[in-house]
Specification:
The protein is an alpha/beta fold. It has seven helices and seven strands, in the order βαβαββααβααββα.
Protein backbone atom coordinates (compact mmCIF):
# COMPACT_ATOMS: atom_id res chain seq x y z
CA UNK A 1 0.00 0.00 0.00
CA UNK A 2 1.08 3.61 -0.36
CA UNK A 3 2.19 6.09 2.30
CA UNK A 4 -1.40 6.68 3.36
CA UNK A 5 -1.52 3.08 4.57
CA UNK A 6 1.47 3.51 6.83
CA UNK A 7 4.12 1.73 4.77
CA UNK A 8 5.89 1.91 1.43
CA UNK A 9 6.68 -1.20 -0.67
CA UNK A 10 10.26 -1.85 -1.64
CA UNK A 11 11.50 -0.08 -4.75
CA UNK A 12 13.71 -3.05 -5.58
CA UNK A 13 12.69 -5.05 -8.62
CA UNK A 14 11.68 -8.69 -8.13
CA UNK A 15 14.85 -10.81 -8.69
CA UNK A 16 13.74 -12.49 -11.90
CA UNK A 17 17.18 -13.81 -12.81
CA UNK A 18 17.54 -15.65 -9.51
CA UNK A 19 14.41 -17.67 -10.17
CA UNK A 20 15.40 -19.12 -13.52
CA UNK A 21 16.68 -22.65 -13.89
CA UNK A 22 17.82 -25.19 -16.44
CA UNK A 23 15.31 -26.90 -18.65
CA UNK A 24 15.33 -30.66 -18.12
CA UNK A 25 16.50 -32.39 -21.27
CA UNK A 26 13.75 -34.22 -23.07
CA UNK A 27 10.91 -32.34 -21.41
CA UNK A 28 8.56 -29.92 -23.10
CA UNK A 29 8.70 -26.25 -22.34
CA UNK A 30 6.03 -24.81 -20.10
CA UNK A 31 3.61 -22.74 -22.15
CA UNK A 32 1.97 -19.50 -21.11
CA UNK A 33 -0.90 -18.46 -23.34
CA UNK A 34 -1.26 -14.72 -23.89
CA UNK A 35 -4.93 -14.47 -24.82
CA UNK A 36 -6.17 -11.02 -25.79
CA UNK A 37 -8.69 -8.84 -27.54
CA UNK A 38 -7.35 -5.70 -29.19
CA UNK A 39 -9.58 -3.41 -31.22
CA UNK A 40 -7.09 -0.69 -32.18
CA UNK A 41 -3.82 -2.49 -31.49
CA UNK A 42 -2.82 -1.16 -28.06
CA UNK A 43 -3.38 -4.44 -26.23
CA UNK A 44 -1.69 -6.37 -29.01
CA UNK A 45 1.46 -4.27 -28.61
CA UNK A 46 1.51 -5.07 -24.89
CA UNK A 47 0.89 -8.76 -25.64
CA UNK A 48 3.82 -8.98 -28.04
CA UNK A 49 6.17 -7.37 -25.53
CA UNK A 50 4.79 -9.64 -22.81
CA UNK A 51 5.67 -12.66 -24.94
CA UNK A 52 9.24 -11.39 -25.11
CA UNK A 53 9.31 -11.41 -21.32
CA UNK A 54 7.93 -14.95 -21.09
CA UNK A 55 10.36 -16.24 -23.71
CA UNK A 56 13.24 -14.72 -21.75
CA UNK A 57 12.82 -17.29 -18.98
CA UNK A 58 14.49 -20.61 -19.72
CA UNK A 59 12.12 -23.52 -20.14
CA UNK A 60 9.05 -21.34 -20.76
CA UNK A 61 7.52 -20.02 -23.97
CA UNK A 62 4.73 -17.54 -24.63
CA UNK A 63 2.00 -18.29 -27.17
CA UNK A 64 -0.12 -15.46 -28.58
CA UNK A 65 -3.83 -15.96 -29.22
CA UNK A 66 -6.75 -13.68 -30.09
CA UNK A 67 -10.33 -14.21 -28.92
CA UNK A 68 -13.12 -14.19 -31.52
CA UNK A 69 -14.54 -10.88 -32.70
CA UNK A 70 -18.23 -10.38 -31.95
CA UNK A 71 -18.91 -7.26 -34.02
CA UNK A 72 -19.89 -7.43 -37.68
CA UNK A 73 -17.50 -6.21 -40.39
CA UNK A 74 -19.87 -3.32 -41.15
CA UNK A 75 -19.80 -2.10 -37.56
CA UNK A 76 -16.02 -2.45 -37.37
CA UNK A 77 -15.68 -0.43 -40.56
CA UNK A 78 -17.89 2.34 -39.17
CA UNK A 79 -15.72 2.39 -36.04
CA UNK A 80 -12.62 2.67 -38.25
CA UNK A 81 -11.10 -0.45 -36.72
CA UNK A 82 -7.90 -1.51 -38.52
CA UNK A 83 -8.00 -4.83 -40.36
CA UNK A 84 -6.45 -7.71 -38.44
CA UNK A 85 -3.97 -10.12 -39.99
CA UNK A 86 -3.90 -13.89 -39.62
CA UNK A 87 -0.47 -14.08 -37.99
CA UNK A 88 -1.97 -14.59 -34.53
CA UNK A 89 -4.53 -17.43 -34.42
CA UNK A 90 -7.96 -17.21 -32.82
CA UNK A 91 -8.14 -19.46 -29.79
CA UNK A 92 -10.88 -21.97 -29.09
CA UNK A 93 -12.19 -22.58 -25.57
CA UNK A 94 -10.95 -26.17 -25.57
CA UNK A 95 -7.37 -25.05 -26.18
CA UNK A 96 -7.21 -23.27 -22.82
CA UNK A 97 -6.56 -26.55 -21.01
CA UNK A 98 -3.26 -26.93 -22.88
CA UNK A 99 -1.75 -23.89 -21.12
CA UNK A 100 0.42 -23.95 -18.00
CA UNK A 101 -0.54 -20.34 -17.30
CA UNK A 102 -2.63 -17.67 -19.01
CA UNK A 103 -2.34 -13.89 -19.32
CA UNK A 104 -5.58 -12.28 -20.49
CA UNK A 105 -5.46 -8.84 -22.10
CA UNK A 106 -8.39 -6.57 -22.99
CA UNK A 107 -9.46 -2.94 -23.28
CA UNK A 108 -11.94 -1.45 -20.85
CA UNK A 109 -15.62 -0.77 -21.40
CA UNK A 110 -16.96 1.40 -18.58
CA UNK A 111 -14.44 0.01 -16.11
CA UNK A 112 -14.94 -3.66 -17.05
CA UNK A 113 -13.56 -5.97 -19.72
CA UNK A 114 -14.65 -5.51 -23.32
CA UNK A 115 -17.66 -7.53 -24.47
CA UNK A 116 -15.55 -9.65 -26.81
CA UNK A 117 -13.49 -11.01 -23.91
CA UNK A 118 -16.57 -11.40 -21.73
CA UNK A 119 -18.26 -13.40 -24.49
CA UNK A 120 -15.21 -15.66 -24.61
CA UNK A 121 -15.33 -16.24 -20.85
CA UNK A 122 -19.08 -16.86 -21.10
CA UNK A 123 -18.36 -19.66 -23.58
CA UNK A 124 -16.19 -21.59 -21.08
CA UNK A 125 -19.17 -23.20 -19.32
CA UNK A 126 -18.11 -26.76 -20.12
CA UNK A 127 -14.63 -26.15 -18.70
CA UNK A 128 -16.20 -24.59 -15.61
CA UNK A 129 -18.58 -27.51 -15.16
CA UNK A 130 -15.64 -29.92 -15.15
CA UNK A 131 -13.27 -27.47 -13.37
CA UNK A 132 -10.70 -28.08 -16.09
CA UNK A 133 -8.92 -24.80 -15.37
CA UNK A 134 -8.78 -25.15 -11.58
CA UNK A 135 -5.31 -24.43 -10.24
CA UNK A 136 -4.11 -22.73 -13.42
CA UNK A 137 -2.20 -19.44 -12.81
CA UNK A 138 -3.63 -16.42 -14.64
CA UNK A 139 -3.19 -12.66 -14.82
CA UNK A 140 -4.52 -9.59 -16.62
CA UNK A 141 -3.31 -6.59 -18.61
CA UNK A 142 -5.51 -3.76 -19.82
CA UNK A 143 -5.94 -0.64 -21.92
CA UNK A 144 -8.05 2.40 -21.04
CA UNK A 145 -8.83 5.65 -22.81
CA UNK A 146 -8.20 7.93 -19.86
CA UNK A 147 -6.31 7.98 -16.55
CA UNK A 148 -9.56 7.47 -14.64
CA UNK A 149 -10.94 4.99 -17.14
CA UNK A 150 -10.33 1.77 -15.22
CA UNK A 151 -6.66 0.75 -15.04
CA UNK A 152 -7.45 -1.05 -11.78
CA UNK A 153 -11.20 -1.74 -11.96
CA UNK A 154 -10.94 -3.41 -15.38
CA UNK A 155 -8.62 -5.99 -13.86
CA UNK A 156 -10.23 -6.52 -10.48
CA UNK A 157 -13.74 -6.86 -11.88
CA UNK A 158 -12.34 -9.67 -14.05
CA UNK A 159 -11.12 -11.64 -11.05
CA UNK A 160 -14.61 -13.15 -10.67
CA UNK A 161 -14.04 -15.11 -13.88
CA UNK A 162 -10.95 -16.74 -12.38
CA UNK A 163 -12.62 -17.39 -9.03
CA UNK A 164 -15.46 -19.41 -10.55
CA UNK A 165 -12.98 -21.50 -12.52
CA UNK A 166 -10.79 -22.04 -9.46
CA UNK A 167 -7.84 -20.40 -11.22
CA UNK A 168 -4.96 -18.78 -9.34
CA UNK A 169 -4.83 -15.01 -9.80
CA UNK A 170 -1.25 -13.74 -10.16
CA UNK A 171 -0.99 -9.93 -9.84
CA UNK A 172 2.39 -8.28 -10.30
CA UNK A 173 2.20 -6.24 -7.11
CA UNK A 174 5.15 -3.85 -6.87
CA UNK A 175 7.68 -6.35 -8.24
CA UNK A 176 8.65 -3.92 -11.01
CA UNK A 177 10.49 -1.92 -8.38
CA UNK A 178 11.19 1.77 -8.93
CA UNK A 179 9.32 1.71 -12.24
CA UNK A 180 6.05 1.46 -10.31
CA UNK A 181 6.76 4.75 -8.51
CA UNK A 182 7.75 7.04 -11.37
CA UNK A 183 5.67 10.21 -11.51
CA UNK A 184 7.48 12.10 -14.26
CA UNK A 185 5.29 10.81 -17.08
CA UNK A 186 1.85 9.35 -17.75
CA UNK A 187 2.01 5.58 -17.26
CA UNK A 188 -0.57 2.85 -17.42
CA UNK A 189 -0.43 -0.29 -15.32
CA UNK A 190 -1.00 -1.06 -11.65
CA UNK A 191 -0.29 -3.80 -9.10
CA UNK A 192 -3.06 -5.73 -10.86
CA UNK A 193 -1.12 -5.93 -14.12
CA UNK A 194 0.40 -4.03 -17.03
CA UNK A 195 -1.62 -1.39 -18.80
CA UNK A 196 -1.57 1.44 -21.29
CA UNK A 197 -3.56 4.57 -22.11
CA UNK A 198 -4.97 4.83 -25.62
CA UNK A 199 -6.43 8.34 -25.39
CA UNK A 200 -8.38 9.03 -28.57
CA UNK A 201 -6.62 6.07 -30.15
CA UNK A 202 -3.63 7.96 -31.47
CA UNK A 203 -1.44 7.48 -28.39
CA UNK A 204 0.90 4.49 -28.57
CA UNK A 205 2.09 2.50 -25.52
CA UNK A 206 5.13 4.17 -23.99
CA UNK A 207 8.42 2.38 -23.49
CA UNK A 208 7.77 2.35 -19.75
CA UNK A 209 4.39 0.67 -20.28
CA UNK A 210 5.95 -1.87 -22.63
CA UNK A 211 8.72 -2.55 -20.13
CA UNK A 212 6.11 -3.28 -17.46
CA UNK A 213 4.38 -5.68 -19.86
CA UNK A 214 7.68 -7.46 -20.48
CA UNK A 215 8.25 -7.67 -16.74
CA UNK A 216 4.80 -9.17 -16.22
CA UNK A 217 5.61 -11.84 -18.80
CA UNK A 218 8.82 -12.72 -16.98
CA UNK A 219 7.10 -12.65 -13.60
CA UNK A 220 4.35 -15.00 -14.74
CA UNK A 221 6.89 -17.35 -16.32
CA UNK A 222 8.89 -17.50 -13.10
CA UNK A 223 5.72 -18.03 -11.06
CA UNK A 224 4.57 -20.90 -13.29
CA UNK A 225 7.99 -22.55 -13.00
CA UNK A 226 7.84 -22.31 -9.24
CA UNK A 227 4.37 -23.86 -9.15
CA UNK A 228 5.35 -26.72 -11.45
CA UNK A 229 6.90 -29.73 -9.67
CA UNK A 230 10.43 -30.47 -10.91
CA UNK A 231 10.89 -33.12 -13.60
CA UNK A 232 7.17 -33.07 -14.33
CA UNK A 233 6.31 -33.05 -17.99
CA UNK A 234 4.19 -30.05 -18.94
CA UNK A 235 1.48 -32.34 -20.29
CA UNK A 236 0.78 -33.84 -16.86
CA UNK A 237 -2.34 -32.93 -14.92
CA UNK A 238 -2.21 -30.22 -12.25
CA UNK A 239 -3.89 -32.65 -9.84
Amino acid sequence: MGKGGGCMPSRNKFPISEATGSEAEGFKKLRIFIVFYSMYGHIEKLARRMKKGVDGIEGVEGVLYKVPETLSPDVLEQMRVPQKGDEIPVISVDELVEADGILFGFPTRYGCMAAQMKAFFDSTGKLWNEQKLAGLPAGFFVSTGTQGGGQETTAWTAITQLAHHGMLYVPIGYTFGAGMFRMDSIRGGSPYGAGTFSGDGSREPSEQELALAEHQGKYMAVTVKRLTPPLLNATCSRF
